[in-house]
Amino acid sequence: FGTAATKLVQCAQPSGYVLNSSDYNDTTANITNIAPSTFYRDADGDTFGNPSLSVSYSVKPTGYVANNTDCNDADAAINPNTVWYRDQDGDAFGTAATKLVQCAQPSGYVLNSSDYNDTTANITNIAPSTFYRDADGDTFGNPSLSVSYSVKPTGYVANNTDCNDADAAINPNTVWYRDQDGD
Predict the structure, then answer these.
(1) Where in the chain does DSSP place strands (E)?
(2) What is the pLDDT of residue 159?
(3) Residue 32 CB contacts under 8 Å (≥ 6 apart), including other chains
(4) Which of 143, 137, 183, 181 is nearest to 162 (CA)?
(5) 41 pLDDT exceeds 80?
(6) What does the alpha-carbon distance between residue 131 and residue 113 come to, in Å, rounded to a whole number?
(7) What is the Cα–Cα distance from 156 to 141, expressed in whole angstroms?
(8) Exposed (0-12), middle (13-18) or buried (19+): which is 19, by Cβ within 10 Å?
(9) pLDDT number for residue 3
(10) What is the DSSP letter of 62?
């Protein structure tokens, strides 16, 4: 495509000349007979462009998009359609019950919705289990004192078979010997 600014009138086609003058900008091959548009770099491939990196071309180049709404062009997970989930208990796991869609991470929100219970930091993205207090450290838990947590807390065990949680010597594995004479 040529430009009307520079022309020759003659029978034979001169080198570097064409029959039409429809080029919008004859100083670059990126602008042709198609009106140029602004395209924005999409480095992370999320279909949202970086407002700080643009080109004006006739045809969209690879790695560019027509919008400039990306808020983080280094992370495809962060864009105007990012869903943030409320993390009420601060354990880094959110709940799908409360969410926001926006670029910037709101305070108290995270990217995942995998929390089993968002009212306690003791229950996270791991299904809770029941753990029993082992006050005497004999690896047998008190059936009367339990918690439901995702991860076993210190001083707790998974079984509830202790017979006396105040005495490590008394548990389901205690061996008793007959003392017939009472001495």
Answers:
(1) 37-41, 54-57, 64-65, 83-86, 95-101, 109-110, 129-133, 146-149, 156-157
(2) 96
(3) 1, 23, 24, 58, 59
(4) 143
(5) yes
(6) 25
(7) 7
(8) exposed
(9) 65
(10) T
Residue type, 47: T
Give the closest residue to 115 by CA, choosing from 105, 131, 126: 126
Which tokens belong to 57?
Answer: 């071309």
CA R_g for the chain: 36
Q: Are 77 and 105 contacting, i.e. CB atoms less than 8 angstroms apart? A: no
What size, in residues, is the chain? 183
Helix (H, G, I), strand (E, B) or coil at 4: coil
Q: What is the pTM of this model?
A: 0.70
Tokens at residue 116, please?
Answer: 């089993």
Provide the token pair at 156: 């707790």
